[in-house]
Amino acid sequence: MNTMKLALKNISWNGFRSLVILLGVVGVAGFLLSTTLIIKGAEYSLDAGLERMGADILVVPAGGEHKLETALLMGKPIDIWMPRENVEAVAAVPGVDAVSPQVYLASLYGAACCAVWEMFMVVYDPATDFTVSPWLKENLGRDLKKGEVVGGHYISVPPETDNIILYGYGMDLVGNLTPTGTGLDQTLFMTMETAIEMANSSITTAVQPLSVDPKRISTIMVRTESQADVHKVALDILAQTRGMVPIESPDLFGTFRAQMNGLLWGFFVISLIIWTLSMFLIGLVFSMAANERKREMAVLRAIGATRGFIFKTLVSEAAVLALAGSFIGIIIAAGGLYILKDLIAGSLRMPFLFPSVPTFIGMFSAGIGLALVTVTLAAFIPAFRLSRQELAIAMRA
Prior knowledge:
By secondary structure, this protein is an alpha+beta fold. It has helices at 3-13, 15-53, 65-74, 86-91, 133-139, 192-205, 230-240, 254-292, 294-302, 307-348, 357-388, 391-396; strands at residues 57-61, 82-83, 96-106, 120-124, 148-151, 164-166, 169-176, 187-191, 216-217, 219-224, 244-248.
């Protein structure tokens, strides 16, 4: 009988002990993967959101930095304004390659004239936009016409209507952007022409008219020249303009990233404690099992089994339990997170986007490897002692 066959038979003969170790590995592997997936999913979501905006710098009215982060992160409507002529002032700063203004609007809450309540709406300028227009050219082949909108990943037409009605004005949803896991997935994008048409219609079709002033904007998206130092350009915008604050894209969501780093360290400490305790308990279980199996191993030695065969059999038993337990734990954790991702993201108030397949495969492999090393190390000392025991002493045990 070879090592693996004997290890499998030992697992089946000692069902309760094997089940305890298996469940321990399932719990540890599932917890570690869940915490890692949540943190990585939040980072992946933020990176996808920044990539969607396509801007190196966002310029907002002074005092509107935190409001902008909340809007982009959670899709909550905000009310920030500055004069449109600020666009020319920012465009004149050295190192700036392109600028595009955006206007932020919100639908009414609890009003029959709005099919969706408190929806975050972004009005862009098709002539200068580099946020939505590239996606439209690639997927629609043209820009939006008057009365057309494109939505985030979760935007859809209500089943009881043929289009999206806001302020009593119906708009055709012509496409959905790829998911980012941020508030952009719950955002509606339209041109200024459509926004003004909706505002004019709202005078007679809405319980409260919508006000859209073409001379006011909410933010300015800035793309810098390829060779420009983005940080220096941001400092120049701050120094050469008034009443505006530039936010470099990597610094966007800075408050949330700081909170996430704190959460990450908390998870790391908890995971380290759980990993250490699990290794100790699994080692204890294997030690108890080794004491019970002294006579069994002595019989194997008596019929010709070598010390190496005994050692390999016990370590193989641990490796099989580690592989099976980690595989089950990771599958359960990943499946649960995928199904409950929206509920978890809403409960934790954090963006979440399931990592890409290559990233998940890497995490899956790392989880399997960590469980394999943990359980094998825990079984190493008991296996070594049992394989080294003297035959005569073991037979008397």
